[in-house]
Design goal:
The protein is mostly helical and 387 residues long. Among the domains are: 21-123, Homeodomain-like (Arc Repressor Mutant, subunit A), CATH 1.10.10; 131-249, Serine Threonine Protein Phosphatase 5, Tetratricopeptide repeat. The protein is built from 22 helices and no strands. The longest helix is centred in the N-terminal third of the chain and has 18 residues, at 66-83.
């Protein structure tokens, strides 16, 4: 931001959204030693802090303990091993190799996390039955993901075009339906088309079809959850998202959506922790700009408007088509008192989104009412059209 008041505040305010160095060191070490017992003193030594500080950082930034985090990682790694088990692998071997010495306890914890016993996971392939064109459908779907994650009009439409073929090739493959459902939801929510009601109905239909086809695939669950969020079905979306993270705690996109969900629900500090986790797992595109924009929304909700401007501006700069998020930066700049800068930013936004009004912006997203009220007030201060 070029204005002196914003620059000064940015320089004076510490950034609470970066994982502490000791936590990063501890996590890196744990990932390479998941099969070993968790010894807090040894882990604190790796992190170069006291055990008490390390435990506090685990709770503040990850919402768990070192042992809880390790147990969740072990379960996720065991599931991947079971899903890709060879003819000579056994449940016992996989449990032992992932740090579970008590087989009965492993089976119970696994069932609580994934809703089935390890032996069933081993018997049933996640993608069975596979259609004859599954391999090509998977390739085409993965190629479409960057466009879908851009959350921008041109890329959204391009992704929908690219996703038609994989749905034809493999009708029982859930992921392309989930991605398409997410894109149709974008069109409805972000004013990417002139038929939002039709787009939203199609989004929900595809999200539900994807869920029925792949209830145990974390990425499919996460994308279908996103479609539900855009349709304001937050409770149902939250349940799917929690299941996705239980299935795959390493899935960066699930942490992006988890952070956005917390922001929608008004828990700014949780949103920042969760989006920080996403950035730690994947600090590059196509997910980085979504994490940045989500950070900005969380800071806006917490009244940290300078931070909100900085994060949203960085996110939009990384993905120019995501200009829909710029309205948060405009409102945040206005709320700091930098009215002339906010008006300039507002004029830039209106050139990209000429039909935007304050009244429409206040109804666009499923944030809490107080968030949307302040958003409208900021846009009004920036002199955007009221209606």
């Amino acid at each position: 931001m070029p204005t002196p008041d914003l620059g000064t505040k940015i320089g004076q305010t510490p950034d609470p959204s970066v994982l502490p160095a000791d936590l990063i060191r501890a996590l890196d070490w744990l990932r390479g030693h998941l099969s070993e017992p968790v010894q807090l003193d040894r882990l604190a030594e790796v992190g170069c802090v006291t055990p008490r500080t390390l435990e506090r950082h685990f709770r503040e930034f990850l919402g768990t303990t070192p042992l809880g985090w390790t147990r969740r990682m072990r379960l996720a790694r065991a599931r991947q091993a079971l899903l890709h088990a060879g003819p000579n692998d056994t449940v016992t071997d996989i449990a032992l190799s992932n740090g579970f010495a008590q087989l009965g306890r492993f089976a119970a914890e696994y069932r609580r996390a994934f809703g089935e016993l390890p032996s069933r996971t081993m018997r049933v392939s996640e993608h069975a039955p596979r259609d004859g064109g599954f391999d090509e459908a998977m390739r085409l779907t993965l190629l479409a993901l960057p466009s879908a994650f851009a959350v921008a009009p041109k890329q959204c439409n391009a992704a929908l075009e690219e996703l038609g073929r994989p749905q034809e090739l493999a009708p029982s493959y859930g992921l392309p339906k989930a991605v398409a459902g997410w894109c149709w939801g974008q069109r409805a929510s972000h004013r990417f088309s002139s038929s939002p009601d039709r787009d939203r109905a199609l989004s929900l239909q595809l999200a539900d079809e994807a869920y029925q086809l792949a209830p145990n695939d974390a990425l499919t669950l996460t994308l279908s959850s996103g479609a539900l969020v855009l349709a304001r079905r937050l409770d149902e979306a939250d349940r799917r998202l929690e299941r996705a993270l239980a299935l795959d705690p390493w899935l960066a996109y699930a942490w992006v959506r988890r952070g956005w969900m917390s922001a929608y629900l008004g828990d700014s500090e949780a949103a920042i922790r969760e989006l920080s986790t996403a950035l730690h797992l994947m600090p590059f595109e196509p997910l980085r700009h979504l994490s940045f924009i989500g950070m900005g929304c969380a800071h806006f909700a917490a009244g940290r408007y300078v931070h909100a401007v900085r994060w949203v501006e960085s996110g939009v700069k990384a993905s120019r088509g995501s200009f829909w998020a710029q309205r948060v930066a405009v409102a945040a700049a206005a709320m700091t008192g930098a009215r002339s800068e906010a008006r300039r930013m507002g004029r830039q936004l209106m050139r990209k989104d000429p039909d935007l009004t304050v009244a429409e912006a206040r109804q666009a997203w499923p944030f809490r009412p107080e968030f949307m009220t302040r958003l409208g007030e900021g846009l009004d201060l920036a002199e955007l059209p009221r209606a």
